[in-house]
Amino acid sequence: MIRTAYRRWGRRLRPFNFFLSLVCAASVIAGVSGATLADYRIRNDYGGFIHKYKLKYAAIRDRGERVIIDGVCNSACTLVLGIVPLNQICVTPRASLGFHTAYLDRSYTFGTS
Fold it and tell me: What is the reported pTM?
């Protein structure tokens, strides 16, 4: 099969390029079929609104994805530790987790609580 495909495409397709294209095609097919094995990598996440992070991490948990913390994960980003099961979280030596106490920014609520 490989020899006939090589003959069909002619001399301009060298064997190395042919095998490289086969490997690329196989990895794309494997990536599509193994979608449940995807990783979500956190590198530079400085936080944000809690409700957005709760929805994002709940979806990651429900898909069964693995989370890799490989950099800064501050504030709301750290919710991943409570939403995604710990056996699906990997923390590398480059990871940095930043926690702080909860607060209410009164400049947005005009001083009312």
Answer: 0.60
